[in-house]
């Protein structure tokens, strides 16, 4: 249990060479201090152009491909409609450039020799006694937990299935076995987990890797904090269903070159010095030693049939005064909060691995996130029924039945 709790700090020491104090996840600061709905109302700050960093001479290298894991998707049916997997869509074209596999024209150079070693994660389910959840006067159900970094790879089993090295560099959390060959069955049944609760949650969570363009070094986040919430945008908590087995989705736009229509799904924040100010691009003025947060929100209305779609997004829809008729099944609203420790050198040379546009423009517009459900079905059903459908405040890790993720 001690190893699980300290995995985020271990990652920081490995990559940044310095220790930091991670905020107490039970404190308001750990949750950003506000609800997701309130966060979307907070003032957004327009970015300013930056001076591009000096060019880095590429270092030859090729990422190691993962080992294929056989298996086929196993759809679940916790809601009306029978989920069915969709055929593998044609992957997007990748423009090769000098450097590691998976690089695309215009994206930051990655020094593969600086990619940190993967972490092992917990090999079993880890549950501990937990407190009783409290009522939420706002009528919102909440469940939060942290995940440490698992590994980095030029893989994306949703966008580029079966193509090891076929993507920009991603940072993975949760299931330690996720690679280009992952399937719903392999994610649900194999791999350790770097999330609280161990293999109670084998879900795969991944985002484009943050790169220090001054030297090509990948930057490991301190940790990922996940929100699963209900009670937003007219979707009654009692009407929310358990997330179906095998569901996967992407939020954000990996090809974005500026603020756009999907920008409400992506925000950045300096969590201490400018708490409450949201930026559409990576802020350059966060103070050394504080956490910068990249937040990505996922839609919560599912079509009730497809576990995926050709664009990995259209089987899901945003709620507005409830779920639309085309996507009638409400699921918990999932939010990624990727926490990065700001070093003494600041963030002026940081760009995402997917930022394939003019380096003189603000970095981070291409921020996005991938999620592939791999929860133990009994455990996520317990959380949904005891916390989310009842609109209770389950804080960090509480399952609502006297147990907690350990």
What distinguishing features does this structure have?
single chain; 406 residues; mainly beta; five-stranded antiparallel sheet; 5 helices; disordered N terminus
Overall geometry comes to: globular
Mean pLDDT: 81
Percent of sequence in beta strands: 15-25%
Oligomeric nature of the chains: single chain
Strand tally is: 20
Q: Strand order of the main beta sheet, please?
A: 2-19-3-9-16-12-11
Which stretches of 5+ consecutive residues score pLDDT under 50?
1-101
The rounded distance between the terminal residues' Cα atoms is 6 Å
Description of the molecule:
The chain has about 400 residues and is mostly beta strands. The protein contains 5 helices and 20 strands. The protein has helices at about 1-5, 5-15, 35-40, 185-190, 375-390, and strands at about 125-130, 135, 140-145, 150-155, 170-175, 205-210, 210, 215-220, 225-230, 250, 265-270, 290-295, 300, 315, 330, 335-340, 350, 370, 390-395, 405. It has a 7-stranded mixed beta sheet. A 5-stranded antiparallel beta sheet has the order 4-5-6-18-10. It has a 3-stranded antiparallel beta sheet with strand order 8-7-17, with no helix packed on it. Strand 7 and strand 8 (about 215-220) form a beta hairpin. The longest helix has 12 residues, at about 375-390. The protein starts with a helix and ends with a strand.
């Amino acid at each position: 249990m001690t190893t699980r709790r300290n995995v985020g700090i271990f990652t920081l020491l490995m990559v940044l060479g310095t220790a930091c104090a991670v905020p107490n996840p039970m404190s308001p600061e750990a949750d950003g201090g506000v609800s997701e709905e309130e966060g979307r109302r907070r003032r957004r700050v327009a970015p300013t152009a930056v001076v591009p960093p000096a060019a880095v001479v590429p270092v030859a290298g090729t990422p190691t491909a993962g080992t294929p894991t056989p298996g086929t998707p196993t759809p679940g049916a916790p809601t009306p409609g029978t989920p069915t997997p969709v055929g593998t869509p044609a992957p997007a074209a990748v423009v090769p450039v000098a450097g590691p596999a998976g690089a695309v024209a215009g994206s930051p150079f990655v020094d593969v020799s600086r990619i940190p070693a993967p972490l092992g994660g917990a090999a079993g389910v880890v549950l501990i006694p937990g407190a009783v959840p409290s009522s939420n006067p706002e009528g919102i159900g909440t469940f939060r937990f942290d995940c440490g970094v698992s590994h980095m790879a030029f893989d994306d089993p949703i966008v580029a299935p079966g193509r090891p090295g076929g993507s920009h560099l991603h940072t993975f959390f949760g299931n330690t076995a996720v690679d280009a060959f992952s399937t719903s069955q392999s994610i649900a049944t194999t791999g350790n987990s770097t999330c609280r609760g161990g293999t109670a949650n084998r879900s795969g969570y991944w985002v484009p890797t943050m790169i220090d363009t001054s030297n090509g070094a990948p930057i490991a986040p301190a940790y990922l904090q996940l929100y699963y919430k209900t009670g937003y945008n007219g979707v009654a908590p009692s009407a929310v269903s358990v997330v179906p087995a095998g569901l996967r989705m992407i939020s954000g736009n990996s090809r974005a070159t500026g603020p756009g229509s999907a920008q409400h799904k992506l925000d950045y924040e300096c969590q201490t010095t400018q708490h409450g100010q949201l930026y559409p691009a990576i802020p350059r003025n966060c103070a050394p030693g504080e956490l910068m947060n990249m937040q990505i929100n996922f839609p919560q209305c599912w079509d009730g049939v497809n576990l995926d779609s050709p664009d990995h997004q259209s089987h899901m829809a945003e709620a507005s005064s409830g779920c639309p008729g085309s996507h009638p099944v409400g699921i918990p609203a999932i939010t990624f909060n990727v926490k990065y420790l700001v070093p003494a050198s600041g963030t002026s040379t940081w760009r995402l691995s997917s930022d394939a546009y003019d380096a003189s423009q603000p970095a981070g517009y291409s921020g996005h996130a991938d999620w592939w459900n791999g929860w133990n079905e009994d455990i996520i059903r317990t959380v949904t029924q005891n916390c989310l459908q009842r609109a209770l405040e389950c804080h960090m890790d509480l399952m609502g039945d006297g147990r907690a993720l350990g």
